[in-house]
Amino acid sequence: MNVPTTEAIWCLAWGDVTDDVLQRGLDYACNNGADCAAIQPGGRCFYPDAIINHANYAYDTYWKSHNRGLNACSFGGTGLIEIIGLDPSTPTCTFPPSS
């Protein structure tokens, strides 16, 4: 089952887990289709340099590269589909649109 296309949906990291747990999800996403070049040093989304920000970007790009399937936003229970109008982009990092 896929989530309907809309600009206001992202797959984000659950912020209430340890950095080690987020790092495992981030590593999985980056090794399996996420666009992680943007969160590497010198990349356009490296800043803010925080694990939660990097995980958010990696989870979202992984999810979008896997046809926005519900299971593609699991990451061992640390991913969640955010269906609100709050764009997770930062002033230095624009998340790709959902469509």
From TrEMBL:
Matches recorded under Pfam families: X8 (PF07983)
Cited InterPro entries: X8, X8_dom_prot
Keyword Lipoprotein: yes
Domain of life from the UniProt record: Eukaryota
The protein's name: X8 domain-containing protein
Locations listed in the record: Cell membrane
SMART domains with a match to the protein in the record: X8
Membrane-related topology note: Lipid-anchor; GPI-anchor
Positions of transmembrane segments: none
Keywords: Glycoprotein, GPI-anchor, Lipoprotein, Membrane, Signal
Location of the X8 domain: 9-95
